## 1
Amino acid sequence: VTKSVEVFLQQVLKFRDAREWGKFHTLRNLIISVGIEAGELLETIQWKDDEQIERAALDVEQRAAIEHECADLFIYLLLIAHRAGFDLVQAGIDKLQINAQRYPVEKAKGSAVKYNKL
Ligand SMILES: [Mg+2]
């Protein structure tokens, strides 16, 4: 695991273990939790138009709400990777490479079309 991420993961595990929450952290529960936290992130923009959402990022309180839900997602993703035995940062690096092959610049530039339709 990438050094700074590894340090953070250890903090997360220490927090979890001090509370004996590890027993709840099955892969199923962790993956479900990502969905729940993604819902909470969506809640931060519910009923807002694009302009209001962009302005929310400039507002200390509203940005903090977005920040907190992103952090929850990050923590659960780290716990999933830890539980499943992979390096989340390396997985991101690998996936970016896959995406680069799926979306060559000459075909994908300025386009929102999915790779199988390019
Ligand atoms: Mg949350």
Note: The two ends are 34 Å apart (CA to CA).
## 2
Amino acid sequence: MWRILQVGLGPLGRQVAGELCARRLGRLVGAVDPHPELVGKPLSELVPGAPEGLRVAAGLEALPDAEVALVTTSSWLSDCMPIFDPLLGRGLAVVSSCEELCWPWLRQAPLAEALAERARARGGRLLGTGVNPGFLMDALPLVATAVVRELRSLRVERVQDAACRRLPFQQKVGLGLSLEDFAERAAGGRFGHAGLEESIAFLANSLGLEVGPIESSMEPVLAERPTPSGLGSIAPGRVRGLRQRAFARTEDGRSLELRFEALAGCEAPRDGVHITGEPEIRLEIPGGVHGDVATSAILLNAIPSLLAAPPGLHTMASVPPVRWQRGAP
Ligand SMILES: NC(=O)c1ccc[n+]([C@@H]2O[C@H](COP(=O)([O-])OP(=O)(O)OC[C@H]3O[C@@H](n4cnc5c(N)ncnc54)[C@H](OP(=O)(O)O)[C@@H]3O)[C@@H](O)[C@H]2O)c1
């Protein structure tokens, strides 16, 4: 069994670590989170099924040897560098939910190059994945193009019920904010769904399409009636979620478009991929894919694919296809 480290014990990290133990996909041998309320706590108090005797460490230095690390700390590559760099230096395979890591060359090319070099030099491997970015707007539509001989446009639509997601997600899509606060947060950055542009860049590069600048937009959606959410009831006139869009086109008119909606009180959650060209392809997932369940699953299911790839910095297009893993009996 692989020895696995969990780095970051927010809601996602705890879910991943718990699922790792429940599915017996490896042996959890250590966990880190510097949050003052977590350091030193028995891990089994935070993660059901975690081995007795493990305590939350404040930093990576105190962790035992391992083959794999799961990193669920931040959406931003610059925040994750002090974690990725030493883990790759130890030759680990690192799977992370960091959104920018799904296509790090878009905004962080120098950091991406540094990580790639570090990984190759020390036999480490690094992959950014998750439900989105990682799968629904990247790996899934890319695979769908396999049966297409002419691609004119590729559109992915994701409409989800924000109220059933973990609380940090509900906060980052603005549930309960006033319009003014939403505008202020949106202008400040690090708000809303991260990774839409990375998904466009992943698709364009993986399909060999040279696209022009990526256009993106974000707008709030207001509640018309009291709407339940994990952050309390949302009063009419306050934000019940958001709509985001990213779009890019090639000089010869091929287009990539991603539409993302996360709403409390969402009536028809769904995921869909629509490719025009020949043949036309429509994939529909009625009800949509639950983002937190899927992210935890894919981070774990990706481990064997990453270990099977050569050392270096990877994407969902450079590792062997990720598929369900059964785990030890
Ligand atoms: N790609 C995808 O599809 C996908 C899906 C779901 C989530 N995500 C991303 O995954 C990340 C985790 O989600 P979450 O809801 O669990 O976020 P969260 O609530 O922000 O949890 C992150 C945890 O990591 C801790 N942390 C920060 N720096 C650390 C470090 N250097 N070492 C160890 N732990 C550290 C944080 O501690 P403090 O509180 O002290 O900072 C916090 O407890 C987020 O960035 C989220 O956007 C991606």
Note: Residues 7-13, 32-35, 72-75, 83, 97, 99, 130-134, 166, 168, 291, 295 surround NAP (CB under 6 Å).
